Amino acid sequence: MSNFIKHQNWRYATKRFDATKKISNEDLEILKEAIRLSSSSYGLQPYKVIIVENPELRAKIRPVAWGQSQITEASHLFVFANIVNLGEREINNYIANIAETRGIPSENLAGYGDFMKSKIASLPEDVKNNWTAKQTYLALGNLLNAAAELQIDATPMEGFEPEKVNEILGLDKLGLNAALIATVGYRHEEDASQHHIKVRKSKQELFINL
């Protein structure tokens, strides 16, 4: 745990990446597995994660992401896209996955499936989309923590135009919406931000014990 805290102090929102340094395939697989194992409500994982390496696509995304250089300079670009208007199909697929993974007859899980449908499928579409978008933050957290453990830099981003990113990547055709972006790679030695002392609230200010 002491190393975990040490690595959390080491990480920061990298402003400049070294475009000459790339994440190894081995480390990339670890980051992907960390995302895959992330917690989510009901375990549904109501999102997809698009990993963009294609330089032409990233060049198109940069102008609609406030021109931030990390988009094109980082080793990899992760786009967390929530499922739009999630419904019974996704829940049925999840139930089937549970049954296959745990060796349980699907009919034994019907009650759980019906419970999820009663809580989720009936929600107004805007409320449902807001909920699935929030789930992507849990997956992002796992990416940030895993990257820090590997001494890989990562920058989470909300500063982009989702509709434009959806169009560039064809996400709307897949029933997806870009909710979050994270650039991942290695800090540039000239990135002054790495030398800034981390600023956080004190424990006394942040926590309330009841």
TrEMBL record:
<dbReference type="InterPro" id="IPR029479">
    <property type="entry name" value="Nitroreductase"/>
</dbReference>
<keyword id="KW-0521">NADP</keyword>
<keyword id="KW-0285">Flavoprotein</keyword>
<protein>
    <recommendedName>
        <fullName>Nitroreductase domain-containing protein</fullName>
    </recommendedName>
</protein>
<dbReference type="InterPro" id="IPR033878">
    <property type="entry name" value="NfsB-like"/>
</dbReference>
<feature type="domain" description="Nitroreductase">
    <location>
        <begin position="10"/>
        <end position="186"/>
    </location>
</feature>
<keyword id="KW-0288">FMN</keyword>
<dbReference type="InterPro" id="IPR000415">
    <property type="entry name" value="Nitroreductase-like"/>
</dbReference>
<keyword id="KW-0560">Oxidoreductase</keyword>
<dbReference type="Pfam" id="PF00881">
    <property type="entry name" value="Nitroreductase"/>
</dbReference>
<comment type="similarity">
    <text>Belongs to the nitroreductase family.</text>
</comment>
